[in-house]
Queue: 2 jobs
Job 1
Amino acid sequence: MNFELSEEQTLLQNMARDFATREVLPKAAEIDQKHRHPEELVVRMAELGLMGVAVPEQWGGSGMDNVSYVLAMEEISRACASTGVIMSVNNSLVCDPLLRFGTDEQRREFLVPLASGQKLGCFALSEPEAGSDAAAQRTVAIPDGDSWVINGTKNWITNGLVADVMILFAMSNKEQGNRGISAFIVPMDSPGVRCGQADDKLGIRGSKSSQVFLDDAKLPPSALLGEVGQGFKVAMSTLDGGRIGIAAQALGIARACLEDSLDYALQRKTFGRAIAQHQAIQWKLADMATEIDAARLLTLRAAAYKDTGQPYGKQAAMAKLYASDVANRAAREAIQIFGGNGYVTEFPVERHFRDAKITEIYEGTSEIQRLVISGHLIKEHS
Ligand code: CAA
């Protein structure tokens, strides 16, 4: 077993850390306070090749691997979790299914601009009544000659309001349950596609999410991604990869908690000495660091399995389950270390606390990750 990163991976990690520290971190509080989509940072991430890290260069990406993607996601999310999720959705939930299921023509038209960051994507699976139960799709795709007519409502669509292209899931044959779901590529400026108001969220406030309404949206036959009825598998296998990205985002938030706590504990004094000299604080720091390392190993393992063509759904679910738990625990402990200063917006840890929570919810709640993991365990044991 080799724990060394390659030279290329180390270069990307250093580049992402440098960019995150110099350009993202100084803006993170303002992005959060103003609920601002950080357009200028998305442009910079595109210039740095971060919007399609694991997409081959031929298709507009950086031609690196998923381990590199995880390393970069951790760095960006350590600085700003909102910026992290914008990057994650474009990489994992939009470019990845286009690469795996798209025709060459679809890749040329959509993947090249998305992976190079000239365009931004979103992923529309969730609905008002299809969250954890993703197969309960009510959005319908009715064949109309060769074309499709789509009607329905999608919920909590990250990037929706600022995206150019949407990967959309809809029921094309109600009789067939999850085997009746199909996937489509939809330009957001298509007639009949409209976003609602931006969601007013607890955390990741710089990430714009909203409802997306489809009213008789007419799509050409070329909009179909994969085969008719294959959409649920497109969605589920895409989420396997997405969960690695969210695990890396959680890791970044947890590391922010640890590093901010270390800075604070070394300068804040109580009872005549820095609080870092008190054992109660030392134990918290030690636990945070240990758990972050364990979460990082799980996340890198899932990415390495994906890179080497091994099944990685269970590993991705474990990484997301554990890393999101670690992020929330680290954020709670960071606030405790900061005391009163942890409870006010002048210091960053209350933002980490609010940002951490979503990692236990989106791309499958922690309860869903446990279902996925136990499903694999039972299948492996039978
Ligand atoms: N890859 C490929 N195929 C898969 C799969 C996977 N990972 N998981 C399941 N399938 C296939 C199964 O093999 C099965 O196929 P057959 O019908 O041919 O046998 C089919 O899909 C149905 O599988 P299940 O019976 O396991 O499906 P289910 O209805 O019980 O649901 C679930 C399973 C795991 C609960 C699923 O609904 C799920 O993951 N729910 C969570 C949804 C989710 O993560 N949503 C995130 C929204 S996107 C988002 O959050 C983005 C954002 O904002 C940043």
Job 2
Amino acid sequence: NNYLGLSSHPEVIRAAVEALEKFGAGLSSVRFICGTQSIHKDLEEKIARFHQREDAILYASCFDANAGIFEALLTPEDAVLSDELNHASIIDGIRLCKANKYRYKHMDMQDLEAKLQDAQKHRLRLVATDGAFSMDGDIAPLREICQLAQKYDALVFIDECHATGFLGPNGRGTDELLGVMDKVTIINSTLGKALGGAAGGYTTGPKPLIDLLRQRSRPYLFSNSLPPAVVGCASKALDLLMESNAIAQSMAAKTQRFRSKMTAAGFTISGKDHPICPVMLGDARLAAVMAEDMLNRGIYVIGFSYPVVPKGKARIRVQISAVHSDEDIDRCVEAFTEVGRKHGALP
Ligand code: PLP
């Protein structure tokens, strides 16, 4: 998930080394005891600014951010409405809370509306969705979700792990891409993918919500503070993205090149406009042997089959990165074409 190639960016590495030298290997403490240094506060402020939100709170991972938010925010009088294909960490976070739970069909707005109608009897409604779904490379219909949320007085939560840094004109994410930055209330995302790829996660949104999480969110309260080197990487990655949108933008053209050339070659690529490009093959064995042959040609792609994806929907997931050259992408398409013909995936 090194979407922007920032994990090996010289300035990101230098920032990590500087933070390590200045602040040491770690804080040996949770945040509220003695694990908060200026770099943690600066990074939280920077994350909020990047997303144009009021405040942000750091976690050891986005898994933790998702595990900590629903229980802290929702009571048994509330309701949470979750896309059936949401990430495992959202599902686990929801399991931990006592709110009334609704699971709507994947990106199905009719089903979401029916569930929102039923949920009117509850005090507060929260719609939770991945901004971009990593298995299929599809993007949540956030405009429609926000319209429904407005109609039925609900809050919107998005997990932006596969969007932060590169979706939208300035890489702010799915909400920027779809023009609803002012309508999504809560964003959870990771520092472990496009933003330097080290580790860490966060929640960003209204200040009262972040204040509440600092008081109540268990993975924040009871887990060690992010190590300085990790904070240094993420902080520099955000600086680079806020200085210019050139890195974020380079992604879209490359994704388009791969998707259109593969489609022209006869492959079916799931999703739309996302650098996760699942080459749909159906058969689990075919996906495994083709991925192995691709690796033999020097191209590192992974075959996914049941239980990670539904039966009969095996695929090879290709992820395009901003550091791939056009030649890399063309070579990958050529290799897929050769390997596909060899194994009967193409005529
Ligand atoms: N949410 C989504 C959609 C993810 O893809 C991931 C990571 O795979 C996570 C949450 C967890 O992020 P982290 O690796 O920071 O725990």
